[in-house]
Structure formats: structure tokens, C-alpha cells
Design a protein that fits this description.
Chain A: One of its GO terms (cellular component) is Fanconi anaemia nuclear complex. Chain A: This is Fanconi anemia group F protein. Chain A: One of its GO terms (biological process) is interstrand cross-link repair. Chain A: It holds the Pfam family FANCF. Chain A: It comes from Parambassis ranga (Indian glassy fish). The complex is a heterodimer of chains A (about 350) and B (about 600). By secondary structure, chain A is mostly helical. Chain A is built from 16 helices and two strands. Chain A is about 65% helix and about 0% strand. A two-stranded antiparallel ribbon of chain A has the order 1-2. The relative contact order of chain A is 0.06. By secondary structure, chain B is mainly alpha-helical. Chain B has three domains: about 170 residues; about 90 residues; about 220 residues, no CATH class. In chain B, about 70% of the residues lie in helices and about 0% in strands. Chain B contains 31 helices and no strands. In chain B, helix 15 crosses helix 18, helix 25 packs across helix 26 and helix 29 packs parallel to helix 31. The longest helix of chain B is centred in the first third of the chain and has 27 residues. Chain B is elongated and about 100 Å long. Classes of the chains: A mainly alpha (about 350), B mainly alpha (about 600).
Chain lengths: ~350, ~600
């Protein structure tokens, strides 16, 4: 373990050198290759020990003095935490590309344009000449994405959903404690803050995966989603109906949650005399009355069992509102009528 | 006014190196492409990618000829603006060549020891651009997930691209349920757009399944079309080995693109005529070329391929390797066609519209498809039919010689009949085999057929006089091989050698005819192997026709192996023995 700790600390020092020192001028292809090799080693160490609290704590403790001494000697140095180790190669790359002393030879190594003989991530090529390939893949995706169907989750969200499920699956296999998995989801949610719409697509894609070994992880994700009411409401109002229906068909929990969200939206509606229509009273109206009706209809169509039960419920609510058959008095009465039209 | 000024400034600095109008053209293009993301812009970008490559190449050579980045920036002040814009255009960065050139230009501007503010700034800028291109994500979610899951960027982007290609491939593969009305939208409209978008992506290995799917889309709709640019790009990427395609996609490429089919046929011809392959190797090469299979699947591919063979044969009628390729190709094609028999309803006639129809089925039938006892009658009929056909046409030609008609039509008919015989030369080989045990009274039709194969016309090839000499050769061979006389009848042997040697006065008999006849006699005669070997060795030694004799023996061996034409092994052993004798005579051995 001591050797591992030493290696990790040395790699953190290596990252600092790559980002800040003029020594990189002396680096050749072998050095660059070895640097990426050590970064992959740290990524491996992270995935091996991140859920082991004891080892994690030791590692974090070990990194403190390393960071401290680097902070002291390098102005503008930013600490590398234990969880940063999981994308160590990225840190190395960004560090190198921001080092003002970077020689052109390393640029050429990193952006080598010769097509790799083998597209699989072979040992020889891994870490080297990767940038040109990244640019190519990104550009190709930009070209192709307008051709994909609009109603679809999207290839990127699908891959992200798979990544999410893989990690959730690994976390739930490693320990019964759901705390780590929750932390992970919160961390992703935080990262996606500016783009909630896309986050909803990732969750959808994750829930629509069909790998049977991940059933428990999907269940966990559903529970987590139900605890985030704002997020759930956003999903139900912003996602295309087809996707919501797919989710409702596959997950009973989601079906109930969806119907609950729709009822809550209806409960918050007021009749606007000037528009002659039910409107949401919240600051950010998300669904119109017409959309709400459409959502209910689609839900009933996909899950006929839900229909009787929900209609009974809506009817009871209508009766509690006075059971009038006049438009504009009870949102439940008007909703029932609109659904069955 | 200011625009004019800047143009004239540009002119002063740039003019000696580059055409200022061209520079302005590319600057304008880069700006226009960056401003709009409409289908028209995309199309325009794709259309200009080839020219842009040439321009970038030109820029790169200027950059590498400059002493320093300061000098470069002074002489080519527009560079930063142009390269910067192009770096963010995915159409430019998606293709290997343009991305490579762009990166090389940037490296060229990167100073190892920046000595001025301009150079330091340029370095910073280049690092920033490259860092953004490689490490920054458009989507915050992608960045967050990579950070939280530790999946490396390259792996992530590769996965997304593969997934996207898979989805599009599924979509493209769906056959169209086309609305009857022309103005209604149909999924086929997307095929054209998709093919245009794929132009810069043809060398991207992850995209090749989509390219395959586009090529193989069944033609079910009038609107279904692949863009010409796409087909050109795919053809050139495929031929330069920048794109690998699955077999059915390659066949579809040939079906859609004439130039790519022509190239495939010519490449095959070149590779097999340049190497000294044995008939067995030749057959392997031809089959591996996938062309016979493609021809059996699509009649139009066969017609084009056959047309190329026809013109090559007209140019090089005496070339034995061209004839062998055509024969081997036809044999492979017929085999593939037989495999597809239950799936295709295209009649043979459609594949050979120019051939004399009465000869078509008799010639295309393989000897193995017929009882051996029927061979002689079949060949007699074939020979008679061909003889009649040539005589009729030649008589007409003679009659027309002083008249208006040039006799071209007749010549064409004879050529087509001969071309078909070259394609089906297995019957010529059977004729050679049957000539061994023939009696003088029934050898004529067989000799005529063999002579026609080697000397198709009377006027240019002196077929009639060659026939006389072929008979003489047959006579000598018969005496030497069948009349078991010892010592060897040297006078007959000598006459044979004379027949095989070039004679100044007379047009010589094709040595291949005599050598093939000799090889067949050596294999099928009643003499013991030692006797046969001795004769073969003597003639080959005196005439120096080692290669020809070895070739004739291999060809015979190949035919006998096919379609179980031969049941006993003794003939194979005999051929092996004769081959060994011949090859040991090769000077190199």
C-alpha cells in the first residue's frame, strides 16, 4: 500500500510538472507515453478503492502534504483531490495544453493525425494521438446529429444514460449503503445544472436501458427521481410524450409518479375568465390545459389499467368541488370531459 | 472605403505568394459557413472541401518556407482569422486530410522559442484553440458525466459516434413505404441528405457501417438517390484503402458507380496480367476480387465488365494472359450464377445480348454438365455452327468488298462468336483432349475449332492456311505419340520443332496451339510416362517454350479437377510427372 500511495503522490507531482514546468521541453514520445500510463494507473487505483472509505481516507491524507508543497512552490497551482484521480488523463492533457512552455513536438504527438491502425483502444495507441481522433469523432457527431429523429432521446444521452447506469450498478454492487450512489447522482445533477432538459433525457435513457443486471440500479434511480419533485415535474412537462409513454410502459413506479405530477399540475390551475381557459398559477407555467389533457390521454392509452382508477379519482375530486357540469367551475370536471371527448 | 483599403493592403502583402482574390474567396467562405447552419451552407461546404484541401496545402508550404512566425504573420496576416474559423467548422475537421492540414498549419505557426510578442501571442492562441477543440465539451452534461464516471473523452466520443451511426443505419435500412403522391415527404428524401453529409466522413472508420447502409438501400422509390459527390468520395476512399466496406456494400458501390466498377475491373486485369500466376492462382485471384459474384447479382455490372473485356481483347487478341483472365472470369461467374439460380429470374440472354444466341447455351454449358460420350457430337455441332457462321459472314464480306458495305457487321458477328468461345474456352480444351485418340477421318471439326480459337479470321489471321499447318502438327504428334516406335521418329520431331519456330516467309502458327496439343498428347497417349516425358522434353528443349508447356499442363490439370471431370488419379500423377520434368528445365531452377 505504501508503494501505491507513493505512486499516486508522484503522479500528482507529475501533473503539476506537466502543467507548470519548463521541463516538458525535454519530454520525448516515451516520456509523454509514460505520463499517460501513470495517469491510467491512478484512474485504476480510483476505481479500485473509491468505495473503500478507509483506503480513501488514507489516500486523501497522503495527497494533502503533496498538494501543500506544490501550492507553496508553484503559483497558481490548484489542488488535485482523490476524486480528481478518476479523470487523471484529462487533467494531464489539459495541463500540458495550457503549459506555456509546451514544445511543438508534444503538440504533434498529442494531435498526431496518422490514422491509427487499429481503432480499438490498444495499449500502444492509448493516450497518444488521441486528440485528433476526439476531434474527428466530435465533428462527425455534429454532422450526423441533424439527421437523427427529433423525438428520439439522442445518441449522446443514450451513451450518457448507459454510463450513468454502469456507475450506479457498480456502486450498488460494491456496498449496500446508498449514500455513495446518491452522492454520485447529485454530483451529475449539479454538473448539469445549466441544462436540465438534457439531464432529463439522460435519466430517461438510463431508465429505458434493458440490461437485466441493472434492474436494481434502475429501481434506485426511480426512487431517487421521486425524491426530487422539481426534477420529476420538469421531466413530465418538458419531455416529448412518446418518451414519457415509453417510461410509463416500462416502469410502474414512473407511471404512478407521472400521473401524480399531472394531478398536481391540474390542482394548481385556475380558470382565467379573460382567456376562457384553465391556466397554471405557478411562476414558470409548464403545461397548458390542452397539453395536460393530451398527457392523460396518452397515459391511459399506454396503460389502460390506470384509466378506471384515475377517472374514479378525478370524479371524486369533481364531486368535492360541487359536482357541477358547467365549464370553468371545477378543473377536474373539465379535465374529465376533455379526456373523454 | 475601408473594405477597399483592407483589400489593397492585403494585395500588397500577400500578392507575391498567393492570389489575393483567392484569399478573399476563402475568407468569405469561412465567414459564411460559420454564420449559418442551413442545408445550403452544408452543401456548399461539402462542395468546396476538395478545393480547400489544395488551398491549405498551398498555405502549409508557404508557412514552412518562412523564417519565423513573425514573418509569416506579416506576409500572410489573414492566416489566424482563416485557420481559427476553419478549426470550428465540423465539415472541415471531420475529414482526415483537411484536419491534418489544419493541424500542420497550426504547428507551423507555433514557435519553439518565441522571441516577439506576436510569437508569444500566437503560441498562446494555438494552445488555446487546440485545448478547446480536444478537451472542451459543448454539453455540460457530457463534461459532468465524464468527470463523475472517469470515462475518458476519446472513449466517450467514440461511443456516441458509434451509437449515432447505428441509429442512422437502422433508419436508412428501413425500406420506404412511399406515398404515391409526389409532393408528400418520404424517408427517401433523407437518403440524399445523409449521403451528402457523409462526404467528409468517408474515411472515418466508425462511419463506414452507415456508408454501407446508404449504398445498400434497396431501390424502392423514384426519389431514392445518392449524391454524386458521395459516390465519388466513397469510390476514391475505397480505392485508396481509406475506407473498408463489407462485401455487399462493395457490390452496391459498383452497382451505383461506373467509375469505381471500371477501376475494379482494370485493377484485376492489371494485377493478374502483371504477375506470372498459375491457372490455379489466377482463379483464386479472380474469385477473391468479388467481381464474378457482383456480376451474377447484377446483370448491369456484368455487361460493363464484359464490355471492358471485349475492348481489351480487341486490343490484345493474341495475349494469352488476357484470354486466360476472360476464360477464368467467365467460369467463376457461371459458378456464382448457378448458386443464385433459384433467386434470380434474369435469362442468360440478358447477360450476353450481343452473342450469337444459337451458340449461347451450347457454349455456356460446362463439359461436366454433359455425359462424356456426348462431347464429340457436341463439339462437332459447335464447330460446324461456328464454321457456317464465319463462312457466311466472310462470303458476304467478300461480296461486299467492292460494293458499299465495308463488311464491318460481318466482322462484328464473327468477333462476338469468337469472344464467346474465348469466354467458354473449356470446350477448346475438351477438343484438344479428344484430338488425341481421334482418327484422321473425324479430326477435322475439332482441329477447325482449335484453329479458330487461335486464328479467328481468315483475312487477318490466315485461318485457312493455319488449319493446314495445324493438321500437319496433329499428324506429326500422332505419329510420334501413337506409333510406338523406338527409336523416336526424329524426322517427325524435327518437323514439329520447325512448325513451332518462327518462319520469316509465312505467318507462323500460334505456338500455343501446338504446345497445347503436344501437352494433351503427352498426357492422354498410351505411351508410358517415360516415353511421353522424353518427347515433351525434346520438343520443349529445342523450342524453348518452357513456360507455355507448363502453363498448358496446369490449365489441363485445373480443368480436370473441376466438376469431377476425371475419376482416376493416374492422369493427375502423369500431369505432375510431366510438370516436374518441365519445371526442372527452367534455367532458374
Amino acid at each position: 500500500m505504501e508503494a501505491v500511495l507513493k505512486n499516486v503522490a508522484s503522479t500528482v507531482e507529475l501533473l503539476a510538472v506537466a502543467a507548470h514546468s519548463g521541463v516538458v521541453k525535454q519530454w520525448d514520445k516515451q516520456t509523454v507515453y509514460r505520463a499517460f500510463h501513470w495517469c491510467r494507473y491512478c484512474e485504476h487505483i480510483f476505481s479500485r478503492f473509491h468505495s473503500n472509505t478507509a483506503i480513501r481516507r488514507v489516500m486523501e491524507k497522503q495527497l494533502q502534504p503533496t498538494n501543500q508543497s506544490l501550492r507553496d512552490s508553484i503559483p497558481g497551482y490548484s489542488d488535485v483531490s482523490f476524486s480528481d484521480l478518476q479523470w487523471c488523463q484529462h487533467l494531464l492533457l489539459v495541463g500540458l495544453l495550457n503549459n506555456p512552455e509546451l514544445p511543438c513536438s508534444i503538440l504533434k504527438i498529442l494531435f498526431d493525425t496518422r490514422t491509427p491502425v487499429n481503432t480499438s483502444l490498444s495499449e500502444d495507441k492509448d493516450g497518444i494521438s488521441l486528440c485528433s481522433h476526439i476531434i474527428q469523432c466530435k465533428s462527425a457527431c455534429k454532422l450526423l446529429s441533424p439527421l437523427t429523429a427529433v423525438s428520439d432521446v439522442g445518441a449522446d444521452a443514450e451513451v450518457q444514460g448507459e454510463m450513468l447506469m454502469e456507475r450506479l450498478g457498480a456502486l450498488s454492487n460494491q456496498s449496500r449503503d446508498t449514500c455513495k450512489a446518491e452522492q454520485f447522482l447529485d454530483c451529475v445533477l449539479q454538473g448539469c445544472e445549466g441544462d436540465m432538459q438534457h439531464f432529463c433525457l439522460i435519466i430517461t435513457a438510463a431508465l429505458l436501458t434493458t440490461d437485466t443486471s441493472q434492474t436494481a440500479a434502475r429501481d434506485f434511480l426511480l426512487d431517487w427521481l421521486q425524491s426530487k419533485h422539481g426534477l420529476l415535474q420538469h421531466m413530465c412537462s418538458a419531455l416529448p410524450t412518446t418518451l414519457l409513454i415509453d417510461l410509463a410502459k416500462q416502469h410502474q413506479k414512473f407511471r404512478c409518479a407521472h400521473s401524480g405530477v399531472l394531478k398536481k399540475v391540474a390542482a394548481d390551475m385556475e380558470y382565467s375568465l379573460s382567456d376562457g381557459e384553465w391556466v397554471q398559477t405557478s411562476i414558470n407555467p409548464t403545461l397548458t390545459f390542452q397539453k395536460l389533457t393530451e398527457h392523460f390521454r396518452a397515459l391511459f392509452e399506454a396503460c389502460p389499467s390506470l384509466r378506471g382508477e384515475t377517472e374514479k379519482e378525478l370524479n371524486a375530486l369533481k364531486i368535492s368541488d360541487g359536482d357541477f357540469d358547467v365549464r370553468g367551475l371545477s378543473v377536474w370536471g373539465d379535465l374529465l370531459e376533455a379526456i373523454n371527448q | 472605403m475601408s473594405e477597399l483599403q483592407s483589400l489593397s493592403q492585403l494585395q500588397q502583402t500577400v500578392e507575391p505568394l498567393l492570389n489575393v482574390q483567392e484569399v478573399q474567396f476563402w475568407l468569405d467562405k469561412a465567414v459564411a459557413w460559420g454564420q449559418a447552419d442551413s442545408p445550403d451552407t452544408q452543401k456548399d461546404t461539402c462542395l468546396h472541401l476538395g478545393r480547400l484541401r489544395d488551398f491549405l496545402q498551398q498555405l502549409l508550404s508557404h508557412i514552412s518556407n518562412m523564417g519565423s512566425t513573425t514573418e509569416t504573420m506579416k506576409r500572410l496576416p489573414f492566416l489566424g482569422q482563416l485557420l481559427g474559423r476553419l478549426c470550428w467548422n465540423p465539415y472541415v475537421t471531420a475529414g482526415d486530410t483537411n484536419r491534418g492540414l489544419l493541424l500542420q498549419c497550426l504547428w507551423g505557426l507555433y514557435s519553439e522559442h518565441p522571441s516577439t510578442a506576436v510569437e508569444r501571442k500566437a503560441n498562446q492562441w494555438i494552445q488555446k484553440v487546440l485545448c478547446q477543440l480536444a478537451t472542451e465539451e459543448d454539453s455540460a452534461a457530457a463534461q459532468a458525466l465524464m468527470k463523475c464516471t472517469g470515462v475518458p473523452a476519446e472513449q466517450y466520443h467514440l461511443k456516441v459516434l458509434r451509437k449515432m451511426v447505428e441509429k442512422l443505419q437502422d433508419n436508412i435500412g428501413k425500406s420506404c413505404i412511399c406515398p404515391n403522391k409526389i409532393n408528400q415527404r418520404c424517408p427517401c428524401d433523407n437518403v440524399l441528405v445523409a449521403s451528402e453529409v457523409c462526404v467528409p466522413l468517408v474515411t472515418c472508420p466508425e462511419v463506414s457501417p452507415l456508408i454501407g447502409a446508404l449504398l445498400q438501400r434497396p431501390v424502392t422509390c423514384v426519389r431514392e438517390a445518392l449524391s454524386e459527390d458521395f459516390l465519388d468520395a466513397v469510390s476514391s476512399a475505397y480505392s485508396s484503402q481509406g475506407l473498408s466496406l463489407e462485401e455487399p456494400a462493395i457490390v452496391s458501390l459498383w452497382y451505383h458507380s461506373l467509375s469505381s466498377l471500371e477501376e475494379a475491373v482494370l485493377t484485376l486485369l492489371e494485377s493478374v496480367t502483371n504477375t506470372r500466376s498459375t491457372p490455379q492462382e489466377l482463379q483464386q485471384q479472380v474469385a477473391q476480387s468479388l467481381l464474378p459474384k457482383a456480376c451474377a447479382q447484377h446483370c448491369s455490372i456484368f455487361l460493363v465488365t464484359n464490355d471492358i473485356f471485349r475492348s481489351i481483347l480487341k486490343e490484345a487478341e493474341g495475349n494469352k494472359s488476357v484470354k486466360s483472365v476472360i476464360q477464368t472470369f467467365t467460369r467463376c461467374f457461371l459458378r456464382e450464377l448457378a448458386r443464385l439460380q433459384y433467386q434470380t429470374s434474369v435469362p442468360l440472354k440478358a447477360f450476353f445480348p450481343q452473342s450469337p444466341q444459337s451458340l449461347l447455351v451450347p457454349l455456356l454449358t460446362l463439359p461436366s454438365e454433359m455425359p462424356r460420350e456426348a462431347w464429340r457430337n457436341h463439339l462437332t455441332w459447335l464447330s460446324g455452327s461456328l464454321q457456317r457462321l464465319t463462312e457466311e459472314e466472310e462470303e458476304e464480306e467478300e461480296g461486299d468488298r467492292d460494293g458499299r458495305n465495308t463488311g464491318l457487321k460481318g466482322h462484328c458477328i464473327i468477333f462476338e462468336a469468337w469472344f464467346l468461345l474465348v469466354q467458354c474456352a473449356h470446350w477448346v480444351q475438351v477438343a484438344l483432349q479428344l484430338l488425341v485418340p481421334s482418327e484422321p477421318k473425324d479430326c477435322h471439326p475439332l482441329l477447325w475449332l482449335v484453329t479458330f480459337y487461335h486464328h479467328p479470321t481468315n483475312r487477318w489471321h490466315h485461318r485457312a492456311s493455319q488449319l493446314v499447318r495445324a493438321s500437319q502438327a496433329w499428324d506429326h504428334l500422332r505419329t510420334v505419340f501413337l506409333v510406338s516406335a523406338h527409336p523416336l521418329p526424329t524426322d517427325h520431331l524435327q518437323s514439329l520443332v520447325t512448325l513451332l519456330s518462327p518462319q520469316p516467309q509465312q505467318p507462323s502458327l500460334a505456338p500455343l496451339l501446338t504446345i497445347s496439343l503436344l501437352a494433351h498428347f503427352a498426357v492422354f497417349c498410351q505411351l508410358p510416362l517415360s516415353g511421353s516425358t522424353e518427347i515433351l522434353q525434346k520438343v520443349v528443349h529445342q523450342t524453348g517454350l518452357v513456360d507455355e508447356a507448363a502453363h498448358a499442363l496446369s490449365l489441363l490439370d485445373l480443368r480436370l479437377n473441376e466438376g469431377s471431370c476425371l475419376s482416376d488419379d493416374t492422369v493427375h500423377l502423369r500431369i505432375k510427372g510431366l510438370q516436374n520434368t518441365i519445371t526442372h528445365m527452367l534455367p532458374a531452377c
